[in-house]
Write a structure and sequence with these properties.
Blueprint lengths: L1 H10 L1 H19 L3 H23 L24 H31 L4 H10 L1
């Protein structure tokens, strides 16, 4: 069990980093009362997912997926471009999500004067 953990930390450190960043993002989303901190937690969680996709797509000794004129099927180790394309698309979606979230946060602050979730619940219950 200990040997497996050491093996993961020394050879597959991207997965360990992914779990750490994912845990921090999840903790920020759950434990924080501030809406901006929750949004930062969502961004950290997304970054962990991006790291996971890139780590899974890594091919040891892989090359760009361009087939040479005289391919030797036994020697071709190519990396799939699909995970990278998915990550690029997800980054664009994440930026749009962050922009909409920040716009909503600015509007909530202008309307209620606070960004704390518990205070917002109390104010909404009084209305």
């Amino acid at each position: 069990m200990i040997e497996a953990a050491v093996d993961v930390l020394t050879t597959r450190y991207a997965y360990a980093l992914m779990f750490v960043v994912m845990g921090i993002g999840m903790y920020m989303m759950i434990a924080s009362e501030n809406l901006v901190k929750k949004l930062i937690g969502v961004n950290l969680f997304q970054t962990a997912i991006f790291l996971f996709f890139v780590a899974v797509a890594y091919v040891e000794g892989g090359s760009a997926p361009i087939v040479p004129a005289d391919p030797n099927p036994g020697e071709l180790a190519m990396a799939s471009p699909l995970p990278h394309v998915i990550v690029l698309t997800a980054i664009v979606v994440g930026i749009a999500l962050t922009a909409v979230g920040l716009a909503l946060i600015v509007r909530i602050y202008a309307e209620y004067g606070t960004l704390r979730e518990d205070t917002l619940r109390e104010v909404r219950a009084d209305e």
